[in-house]
Structure formats: C-alpha cells, structure tokens
Amino acid sequence: MFSARSLFQEIVDNDAAYRLFCSIAASGEAQGGWENGRIAALLPASHRDLAPKVARHGADEDKHGRIFRALLRRRGLTPVEVPEATDYTMLLERRGIGLAHDKLRREEPLGERDIVAYLAHSRVTEQRAAEQMLLLRKHFGDHPEVGRAVRMICQDEENHLAYCHEELLRLARAGHGRAIQRTLRQCALTEIAVHRDVSLAVMARMGRILDWSRSRTALIRAGIMAFYGYERLLGWRRMVSLAMPARRNALGGPADAAPEFA
Asked: Of 31, 130, 171, 193, which is least surrounded by CB within 10 A?
C-alpha cells in the first residue's frame, strides 16, 4: 500500500534517491541561512531588537544544511547539483515572494514593507516546513539513521513558526495589519503553486531513480494535484491565520550546535 511512510522509506533505502533528497534539503536550508543573515544585518535601527532573532533563524537554517550534508557523509555520499525545477527557495524568489537577493546584496537598510514581506514569507514557508517535519517525525522520529536529525529540525521549525506568528502580531498591533494580511494571502497562494511544481519535479526524478511503474508515478502525481486543489480552495487559509503561540520568544536565545552524525 502506498503511503508517505513507504515513499520516504524507499528514498532512505536507496543511495541515489537519498543523495538527491538530502542535497535538495541542504541547498534550501543553506540559502535560507544566507537570506536571514543578510536580513539581520540590514534591519534599520527602529527594528534592531528583531536582529538577534533573525540571526538565530539564519543560524538554525545553516545548522540544518550542515545536518543534511553530515547525513550524506555518514553514508559515504557527496551532494549532487540541485535541479533548477526542484529549487523551492529560488522559485519562490522568482515569483516575487520574500526579499530579492539583489536587494539583500546591497548595503541599504530595509524598510517597513520589507520587514512585513520577510515575516509573511517566513510565516508561510515555515508552516510548510513545520508540517513536513512533523510528518517525518511521526514516521521516522525513531529511525536509527535519520531520527535524531528529524527530531532536532522539527523542533527548530516549530520555533520558527511560533516566532513568525509573534512578530507579525506585534507588527499588526503597530498598524500594519492590512498590509500583513494582504501579503500573507499573496505569499500563500504563490507558495502552494510553487510547492506543487517542486513536488512534481522531485517525484518525477525519484520515480526515474527508483524505477517506479507508470501507474505508480501517475498515482503519486494525481495525489500531488489533488492536494494542490485542496490547498487552492481552502488549505491556504491555514497559512495566513495568526495566533499568539504558546511558545513565546521562541528564538530569543542562541542556536543549538549541529550534532555529529559522521
């Protein structure tokens, strides 16, 4: 019977599929680390209290990238080049979500709109990340090879999501509520389309590596499209709601060190 657990188990059990999975994950996390580091450096004086939290967010993302690379080394594998069609963070930037890299490479302080754009983008993408890691923790939290990494990254993603809720609510109280809701909706609708496209691209490559039958490939593709239909109709709303998290000041301290897996 096909399931998320059996699908990921196939990937973990096959070196080529596992290598692609970890390479895609490591690349995305490293890019997120760089983006957050630049944003922390460019925050204006009026938002300097946010800088340590953004920097912590970036340090966590860097740590996740190191974890995925360490998982590859543990199996004697090296990263592969990430196919363009599977590069989630790059595709989001191309669709105008978040802050453009050209802006982040300049030495110009960010404005209020930029900060709203950054936090809205993070709130949407961290929702996706937190849900995916919760699913992996449910099925692979005790796995001898990847369980420890899954548990650590899952906890970090929950912290990131809590931080986004708290900071966006703070900005809403400061008078940015309408801009936040408008930006969140735009981010969510774009993200679900990019997530669909990336999922299709990743699964097409996994299917070739794992030699899936046409019927299985078609079934997985249909599942991705059905989930996109649900998200386009109703599911996007979970990405734009804001509620004060139980976990307050979730990024108020230093990032934990990446564990050794080699």
From this structure: 193
Q: Which residues contact 186 (CB under 8 A, 6 or more apart)?
A: 97
Q: CA 91, CA 194: separation in Å to the nearest integer?
A: 7
pLDDT digits (tens, 9 = 90+) for 196-230: 999 999 999 999 999 999 999 999 999 999 999 99
For the packed helices 177-210 and 214-233, what is the interaxial angle rounded to 10 degrees? 180
What's the Cα-to-Cα distance from 161 to each of 105, 225, 245, 250, rounded to whole Å?
26, 26, 9, 9
What tens digit of pLDDT does each residue of 5-41 get? 899 999 999 999 999 999 999 999 999 999 999 999 9
Closest residue by Cα to residue 206 from 55, 48, 24, 21: 21
How far is 204 from 216, CA to CA, in rounded Å? 11
Tokens of 202: 């990743």
C-alpha span between 34 and 51 (Å, rounded): 14
The two structure tokens encoding residue 136: 């992996």
Nearest to 153 by CA among 225, 84, 64, 217: 64
Distance CA 119, CA 251 (A): 14
- pTM for the structure as a whole: 0.94
